[in-house]
Every structure is written in structure tokens, then in C-alpha cells.
Design a protein that fits this description.
The complex is a heterodimer of chains A (about 375) and B (about 400). Chain A is an alpha/beta fold. In chain A, about 40% of the residues lie in helices and about 15% in strands. Chain A has helices at about 45-55, 85-90, 100-115, 135-140, 145-150, 160-175, 225-235, 235-245, 250-255, 260-265, 275-295, 315-330, 340-355, and strands at about 5-10, 10-20, 25-30, 65-70, 80, 120-125, 180-185, 190-195, 200, 300-305, 335. In chain A, a hairpin with an 8-residue loop joins β2 and β3. The longest helix of chain A has 25 residues, at about 275-295. The chains are: A alpha/beta (about 375), B alpha/beta (about 400). At the A-B interface, α4, α5, α7, α8 and α9 of A face α4, α5, α7, α8 and α9 of B.
Chain lengths: ~375, ~400
Amino acid sequence: MHILTLHATFRSLTFHAFRDGMDEPVLESELPLEPSDRGQRRLPADLLRQVRHALQDIGLPGPAAIALRALFGGERFARPVFVCDAVLAQLEPLLHRAPLHVPQVIELVHSTREAFPDAPMALVFETSFFARLPEREWRYGLDPETVESQSLRRVGFQGIYHEGACIDAARRLGMPQPRILSICLEPRPELAACLGRWPVVVTGGTTPAEGLPGETCCGDLDPSVVLRIAQDLGGGPEEASHVLTRHSGLQGLTGRPLSLADVLTDRDRDRDTQRQLAREVFLHAVLRACGAGIAAMGDVDAIVYSGRYATSGTVLHTWLNQRLEPALGRTIPSLIHTRSRAQHLRDIVRVMAREDGRGTRSH
Amino acid sequence: MNVLVFNCGSSSLKYRLIAMPQEQELSGGEAQRIGPPTAKPSCLVLNRGLSGKETRITPMRDHGEALRQVVAVLRESPGCMPHVIGHRLVNGGPTITDRSLVDDAVWAELVACQDLAPIHNPPALATIQACREVFPGLPQVVVSDTAFHRTMPRHAQTYAIPPALSRTLGIRKYGYHGISHQYVVTEAARQMGIPVARFSAVSCHLGSGGASLCAVVNGQSIDNTMGYSPLQGLVMSTRCGDLDPGITLRLLAAAQGDRASVERQLNHRSGVLGLSGNSADIRDAFESLGSDGDADRARTTTHVYLWRLKKYLGAYLALVGRADAVIFTDTIGESVPEVREVVCSGLQVFGIHFDTRCNAAARDLPVDVADTDSPVRVWVIATNEEISIARSTYQAQCTF
């Protein structure tokens, strides 16, 4: 069955088309969204028509099913779901918890339905993987009234990669429930400690700002620093949020655009002290997170690297093993999980369609 | 040489007169409830050795008055006058990175960094000023809690925000509880017969109020769970510890930009108090586990408190590499064996083999509660910040 996957960010909509029986996409493209300085960007009205035309141009018929990646599904969506009116109604209460992402998903659902009215569409949530996160991990040191009124709960935001990587690791290790450190090397990197497919620790927070420093995102910060910045910058919470999520992290430290892979490979370390510092800040945070995850699980069987920079995991792993071996008395095996998010989305919706009996018509 | 040590709290003033280098305490006590009237009167509690404690009710409107009461007590006993004074300073800012003799330049720097520890630094400065008046010409030394962490590598001090912003606002990780960490690390190394310059450990200062872990390699701090302020890190009695930056901003938006109210919430109404709803002391949560009414909330409180602690212990063991010991100190670290047991259990992967019976029976400190064959030892050591300040002050006086 032909499957279309969609993944929207603030800057663009990426789509991948998979032909039946082929593992790699036959078409992939990134369409820019209408520019905006900050906040949510609007989907151009004809964006999904562009996708449909692109499929027609290479002779692909309409997809048998569509997978749409959603960043946040709260506690309500512990599994991917096929879109229906009831599902859309259940997204509404999540608007205030992810005010930039959820409206974009709803808008994308409507546009996609219009462009592909016959194809069943699944929402695959990054946060579903963390639905079973233990309370001691998701709860902050705050009073329950504040936690409940503001829905302040730790979740992870790279669940699709983590789940795929953990399933792959268990298979390759031949263990039913290995103790895995799953390190997702994306522009917003994230580490999860998982017992099989059960996450017990994750570096992400209520928002993706917490955790490991990303390409533009600050990662862990003293709350006093956040308050100081919000006050001294003069723009209040919104301006502070913009600085901490768009102009901080590795690019903030170096003052120029670069990727996590650039920093990890560190080809010109001798010439760029700021880049060297950014690398060391990131490695320090990863090493701490590894130690925390190992303590939480009691041991570790492997570290698995995923995400678009998964292959940079080899460099990172060499460094991590050098640092962890004195503490553990041994090295840790590594696995590189190279499957893309789009491939995971395709796999998920294909299984869903088969189980549900949808999308089985031949194209 | 008699060293008079002052350790200021917001409404208290601990003092010790210690003969150095023999480290013999000549006098000691604490002025309590300094400041505005409270339910109980201000008083001076004096340590009388084998005779116990003596309490004197006396009004003390500020730390200057408290100091004068302390001096009056010292004058009652012959040979109890100081030759040098040492003050604890919670945050010495970016410039006071070691023990410093207070001169005009240092004084100006102290005034400039008052806001970095708004609860503790101002009363310390008031005490220094009062000492200048009472003991004109007597050398005064400030020993900063942040000084021990000056050895943290640059990447451990750096937050991933634009450097220009860090420079302009003076934002970096300082680390806290350095005087206590330094004392127990030195003591653990001595107990194990390892030169402190080759001693590596994770030090757990678990107070009934604040708490922090410190990663130590070759006797030097390489990381501390507290950050720019003492708010970051572990779940503490009333402080939230680590928090998603997005949450802090959400709370600020909900408070309509009122930074002070968010600071009050995160510093004074969160942590163990916020989680439990009825007590800021984790020992009360442990005691409530068996009760009918609060058991669920108490269980959540202890789980969140211990989980954060355990994760940080693992994080710091990874940073340290080959650790010689894990050290527990201060009120909770010394007196609550359940905390040590839960936090150290299941960490054989790091070389920690815990002796639960020895731990439960630990009374006379210092004591090693690790199993005989544990590669990493687990020490419980009573902290003594005043001795640590006295040592630094004495060394400074010998140097200057």
C-alpha cells in the first residue's frame, strides 16, 4: 500500500511518499511555510494540493493511508489514532498546553482531508511513548495544585525515534527487555533510559526547552536565570522564550548557524574556541544524562543512537565510552539506528491500517 | 591563634572561637531569631560543653546587635578574644573566588554581589561591618561557599545561552555548599588514607533546608547540582530544584510578570513542602508513609525527592569516573539511613555495594557503611563548616 507521511515544523512541511514494497521513499520534499518572526506559521492554503500534484507528477496515485506526525498528545493520546471528528474534539483541550503545535496539527488535518478525502489519516504523537513514564520521573518539585492547573508534567518529544530505536535494539541484542540508553541526535536532542520499550528517564520536560542543549534551544537552566533573563531583557516571558528556544543552545554559544553533527565531529576544534566550548557543554550534559539513566535502570546493556545525525553517534560513543569505562569498569556496546522518522511513521500507519482493516484497497 | 568564625543565616548567627592550628573550640553558640519580633523572643544559645546549652533571652534587632551580644559573652571568659575573624559568604560572585582578606576593594566587591545570595549575603555584610566597629584593626577574612567550585571546568560553569547575555547579566554556574563539601571530602580522604589531591568522590550535602551534590576529582570540585542560584538541582525543603525553563516562563506569565511572586513560589512554597502540602522536612514525609490520611502524598513526596537524588548520584559518578567514595553529610545525610539506603541501592554497576545493617546502625560518625568488598566506599560524615572556615582563615592569615 502506498503511504504518505507528513511532518510539519515551524519552518516547513516535509512529506515522504512510500510505494508499496519499497523501504525507501520514492519522493520526499520540504515545502517552506509562510515566514513569521515567531510563533506559529500558517499553512499556505494550497500546500497540500502541492503535495498531491507532486505525487501525480511521478505517477503515484493517492495514498492508501497518511501518517501525520504530531509533537504533543498529552496523556489522552497514549497511542497513535486514526483521525475522526471525535479525535479532533479531543485535541481541543490540548490547545493551551501546546499552543503553537496543536493548532498547526488541527489545521494540517483539515488541509490534508481536503486534499486527500479518501485516505485514512493517522496521528502519530511523539509524546505517546512517554505515557507510561513513572510519576517520580514526570513530576516536578512543585505543589499539586500548580501542576494540575497548568498541566505541568514531564514528557519526551522524540518518542517516535526512541520507540523505533528500542525495538530495534531489543531485536539486535536478542534480549526481551534490554536496558537501553536511547540518544536521539536531532536538532533538539534527547536521551531516554528505557527498560525494553518502557521509558524510565527522559531529558525532555514539559516543553522541549528542558534537557540537553539543542542547536538553538538552551536545555537545562537554573529557574533563577530564566527569571533574570525575562526581567532584564524587558520583553517578559515571550521574549525570553524566543531567546531561550531560538537563539540559544549550540548556535547561541557559537554565534553562528551549525548543526549538532558539526559540533560533534568538531573538525576545526583548534581554530574555534567557542565551538569547542559548545561541544564540551553538550558532551558534559550527555555524560550526566547517561549516568542518571544508568543509575535509574541499575545497569545498561547498550546505547542506541537515532535521529537524523545518528551516524555521528559513532564519534559520540567513542567519547562516552572513554568517560564511562572508569566508572563502570567496562565499555558499553553501541547501536546506530539509521531509520528515518518518515520510515517509522510509515511502519506505524501500515500496522494500524492492517489491524484496523483500513487502507487495504489496492492502488 | 584564636579564629572567631561567623556563619550567618537570614535570622541567625552561629559563632565559634577556635584555637588554631590545634582546632580546639574555646567558645561557641548561636544567636537566634534576629530581626523583627516573632512568636518567640530573640535569644543567644551558648554551647557549654559537658554542661549542655545555656539560653539567654535578649533583644537583637539586627546582626550588628547579635554580634555585640556574642562579643559580650566572649569577654566573660579570659583568653577568649579573637586574633582574626572568618566569615562564611554564601556567594562570593565572580571575583571573590578564594578566601579573601577584607580590605576596601574586597568590601566593594562584597557589596556588589549581595544580590547573588539575597537571603544570606546581606546579613554577612552587616556582621562584617559590625566587626569593623567592634574590632577595629583586626583582620577579617571571607570564605566563600562558591570558592570551592572555582575549579569547575568552563563547560560545567556555562549555560547554553548567548555568551553576550551571560556576560551582561553575570550568568554562570557558581555552585554552593562548597565549605561543607570541602570539609567532608578532606575528612573522607583522611579516613581512607588517600592524599586529598588524589581523592575522587561524590559528596552529598543533604540539609534539612538546602541540599546539593558535588562531583570531586583529585580533591577539586568539577560540578555542583546548584547553579547560578541555590534554586537549581535537587528537590529541597521548599525549593523546587530543576525545572523546565518553559515552566518558569509559564508561571511568570500566569503571575502577569510578577517575578518576585514566582521566586517566592519556587523558593519558599515548592520542593518537599509543595509536594507534601504539610511539611518542608522530608523526615516528616517518611514518618507519614504509614499513616492513613497523608500516605499517598507522602509516598509521592519521598519518591520524587529520592529519585532526583539517585539520578544525580549516577550523573556525578559518571562525571567522576573512578570514585573512591560517596559521602553523605548534614542533617538528612547524617541522620536518615533510609535516604542513604534507597539512593545507594542497585548501584553495583558503579561499584557501590551497600551494607544495609551497618547503615541502619550508623550513629557514631564518621562511619563507612559500604560492604567490605565494595570498591567505592560510602561514608557518613558530620559536616563542620566552622572548622573549615577556621582552617581557611588561619591559612589566609599565615599567608597575608
